[in-house]
Specification:
- There is one protein chain.
- By secondary structure, this protein is mainly beta.
- Among the domains are: 151 residues, no CATH class; 90 residues, Immunoglobulin-like (Sandwich).
- The protein contains three helices and 52 strands.
- The strands form seven sheets. The protein has a 25-stranded mixed beta sheet that branches. It has an eight-stranded parallel beta sheet with strand order 3-5-8-11-15-19-23-27, with no helix packed on it. A five-stranded parallel beta sheet has the order 30-34-38-42-45, with no helix packed on it.
- Strand 48 and strand 49 form a beta hairpin.
- The two termini are 26 Å apart.
- 49% of the residues are buried.
């Protein structure tokens, strides 16, 4: 059920009023909207909303400009799908007063997406190659969370290849906020978003400058969080009471008093935080890179480098339980001393195990309560980063981290690709850190473009809710994809019209029936008319 207060707010604010007016290549909208937006510029002149029984498609290259502090409430299905060459932009006409977090000046009110009440009538909101800037959820408003995009409830919610730039909120999630939801956030950038405010008598704090999630599942993969800020916890990303897959992300130059890069609170994760780079994030108090508070989560193959905090430059732990496998801590610093520069464990009740990690200063780099669990096969050697290119924290030839990870790492649910998109498991044993050593540093994307590239790849496999199908074609084609069981019976089928290039699809979205199948082996086949390829997938209980 949606909160009664929100329903009343819709009724009072919108009534039955609707206006969509074309003027040349531009369009003016307020009230109820639906259909197709294909104008050069959409001028939003009042509050707008998409009813539950309607749909809206926003075409590539459309510029949506809010003329004042107006918002967009979405109850129906929306697809805003831009392209790299023609992104869709959501902005405001005047940014004067944007930085005043107490008032509505200089911003628009953001997009509010409400999930459907019934699973058989799933709400869909797809944002791809969209740019969200100068939105705000200020103190003066009833809702103070979610500056640019605010998602409530479950549905088919995807945020792919999007940018969130300089959005603000008084409380949580200046770029993107989701609650009781299950979104996919993939290959997106969160830059200079700000959650929080100067200290007040109530001592309320901001969480998740770039992104905040509450009581949710979902996937956060291949994103970059840079120069975001929160006044409380999680400058880049903050999660509270969640079970979210967080993998293959870069957290860089973010800041918060706790968890400069990322903060986790009251959460229990079924899959590890894996293959992330925490680089040069800062925290006034604890956990420059990452802060774990009252949570249970494993950390696998992350790299923490050059982060700073009052205590625990790389990682801070408070009443948490975690196993750390194949993590790399190097060059992190703390104000207090060298002893807790890499990791700070607040309390002896926390159970933190270290396996096959590379930690600068070794056990001496772990401060606070010190070691509270196992410390097995860990090293303290210069990791020998390559120091240049798109991924300067890849490993050089001769690095002690190469083939030094836990031999049983294939059992940890890691994504099949490292942070650079290269094959994670190779040469019989995994490396330490977010990157797998490459004899010649070639990115996964470049490998995809080679002429001998397979047309269909699925990773990770065995498949879970984080698995993707990657289709590479050399010329435009109408393709058919089938999901069949071991006896060849068709379970799902989808037709796609694709342009030349590399295309990535969330596997559960291609095949909705996948979630209801029993564990076992299945076949995914792609046909182009001239060519056919099949991949065997192993479906595990999820």
């Amino acid at each position: 059920m949606k909160p009664i207060t929100l329903i009343l707010l819709f009724a009072i604010t919108f009534g039955a009023y609707s206006q969509q007016t074309h003027c040349g290549k531009n369009m003016f909208v307020e009230g109820e909207v639906s259909g197709v937006w294909n104008a050069d510029t959409i001028f939003v002149t009042g509050e707008i909303y998409l009813p539950a029984d309607k749909a809206l498609e926003v075409k590539p290259g459309v510029y949506v400009e809010f003329q004042d502090f107006f918002g967009f409430n979405v109850l129906g299905n929306i697809e805003a799908t831009g392209t790299p060459e023609a992104p869709i932009v959501f902005s405001v006409n005047d940014t004067t007063g944007l930085y005043n977090i107490f008032e509505t000046t200089g911003a628009w009110r953001g997009i509010f997406v409400y999930g459907s009440e019934h699973l058989h009538d799933e709400t869909k909101a797809i944002f791809e190659h969209c740019h969200f800037e100068y939105a705000k959820a200020p103190y003066s408003e009833f809702i103070q969370n979610g500056g640019a995009v605010h998602i409530l409830g479950k549905g088919n919610f995807q945020v792919r290849h999007c940018t969130f730039f300089r959005n603000y909120c008084y409380m949580k999630g200046a770029g993107l906020y989701f609650e009781n939801s299950n979104p996919v956030v993939f290959h997106s950038m969160f830059i200079e978003n700000y959650a929080g405010h100067p200290p007040t008598a109530e001592e309320t704090w901001g969480y998740g400058g770039g992104l905040f999630g509450l009581r949710s599942k979902g996937t956060v993969m291949f994103n970059e969080f840079q120069d975001n800020w929160a006044s409380g916890m999680g400058g880049g990303l903050s999660l509270d009471s969640c079970d979210v897959l967080v993998a293959n992300n870069i957290f860089k130059h973010n800041d918060a008093p706790l968890g400069g890069g990322m903060g986790v609170l009251r959460s229990s994760f079924s899959e590890p935080i894996a293959n992330n780079l925490f680089l040069a994030n800062t925290a006034m108090f604890f956990g420059g890179g990452l802060s774990l508070n009252g949570s249970r989560v494993d950390l696998v193959n992350n790299t923490f480098v050059d982060n700073y905090a009052g205590q625990g430059g790389g990682l801070y732990v408070n009443h948490a339980f975690a196993q750390l496998h194949n993590n790399l801590f190097w060059g992190n610093t703390a104000h207090s001393s060298t002893i807790d520069s890499q990791v700070f464990i607040w309390d002896s009740a926390s159970q933190i195990d270290f396996y096959y990690c590379n930690i600068e200063f070794g056990a001496e780099g772990i401060g606070g309560a010190g070691l509270t669990g196992d410390y097995v096969e860990c090293i303290e050697s210069d990791p020998m980063f390559i120091g240049g290119g798109d991924h300067p924290y890849q490993l050089k030839e001769g690095s002690p981290c190469i083939m030094a990870g836990n031999p049983e790492s294939e059992n940890f649910g890691l994504p099949a690709q490292d942070l650079a998109g290269n094959e994670r498991f190779r040469n019989g044993r995994i490396d330490i850190g977010a990157y797998e050593y490459q004899e010649d540093i070639v990115s996964y994307q470049k490998l995809q473009a080679t002429n001998d590239q397979k047309m269909l790849k699925i990773f990770p496999n065995p498949v879970g809710r984080q698995s993707f199908a990657v289709i590479t074609i050399q010329q435009s084609a109408e393709i058919q994809m089938l999901l069949t069981d071991a006896q060849g019976r068709t379970l799902d089928l989808v037709n796609l019209l694709l342009e030349p290039g590399v295309h990535e699809f969330y596997l559960n979205n291609l095949f909705p029936h996948l979630e209801s199948l029993n564990h076992g082996s299945y076949l995914v086949t792609v046909h182009t008319g001239l060519k056919q390829e099949t991949v065997v997938i192993a479906l595990m209980n999820r």
